Amino acid sequence: MDTNPGLSSIELPRSIEEERNGEYLHEHWEQGDLLVNHIVALNERYLDTSSSPQISPTYDYIRLLSNCAWFLYEKGNYNEARTILVGGLDACEQLKLVSKSPEIDIIYAHMLNTSAILDDCGGRFDSQIEKLKEVLEIRKRVLGENQEEISGVLNNLCLAYESAMQFQEALEYREKSLEVCRKHPKSMSRETKIQKRELVYSRLLLAMGQLEEAQKLFFGLSRYFELIQNWYFIGHLYIIMGNHHFAKRNFHSSQRCFLHALKQYEEVGKATDHPQAAACLYKIGRVALEEGDLDKAIEKFREAIKRLQLIDPMNPQIGRINFMLGKALKRTSGDHTDEIGKLEKEIQVIVQRLRPQQDLSAEITEALLDSLVDGIIR
Q1: Is Repeat included in the keywords of this UniProt record (predicted)?
Q2: How many CB atoms lie within 10 A of CB 140?
């Protein structure tokens, strides 16, 4: 049987191919799911060095893997996305040996960009920044300094530095990203890109404690995202607004925002397993914990953990939620010794993976995870 089914003739459905134009795939998940298993099987075959005959990578093949990796990232299937990238990046390197086409470099940069975003999901911020700078170098070399796509990489660098809590660098890359956007007044997506940068800015202001400055952006962002009917960014904005109210200890408004954000993900009927939906449940649990509603907090934390474990059992966010669940259980009158002990062990495993160290005492573990949830919910 032919194990290389005419890769160059494969037609990519809109949902998988869309990403190479810089568009999100959230509206096309069901369509994209039709091809994912096939692409995963192709990648497994490519990585299996004992298979014969070997799959010889082509331009269409690496493009297919690149778009599939992004699709899997958006769906929250991080482990499978990483496996696709292992094969995809290797295939790019192999193809470079026989072709000098700049298109290969562009696809390689796409994959490296996805890999960098996955590093962010795993808390590997130094690796994320290093990869994004390589992506920026490749795209500038191949596309030019002021090509519109450069703005996206600069924005990703802003997000990476924000995650690493290096706020001055984040602000600098935000300005650079906006500067490139403004150089393309005829671009149909220019205004949406600018509003997305403002969304990032509101989150950055919040992280820096500039609550009133962040609040000034909320109305305009809400009006714009409602106008273009983008449920994903509406959800993201309401999470930021919920964080703002939480920081001001306005728990009623905070919970209302988180519930509205959760509604955006669950109403579409496809996103109940999305990491952002789990994040909303976690944040609703945090509000309940602050208000002293321990039963509700425990329920929401457990549901958030359950959903994340289905998506990616190694997601470091599970450690954060385990920590808060443990806090809630300790405040109840019941005996939860066994469950708390299990949670602490799971937390230590996650902390060890994030920050290897010799001393993994409960005190250090708690201090590391508490820093993630201190003050504003991140």
Answers
A1: yes
A2: 14
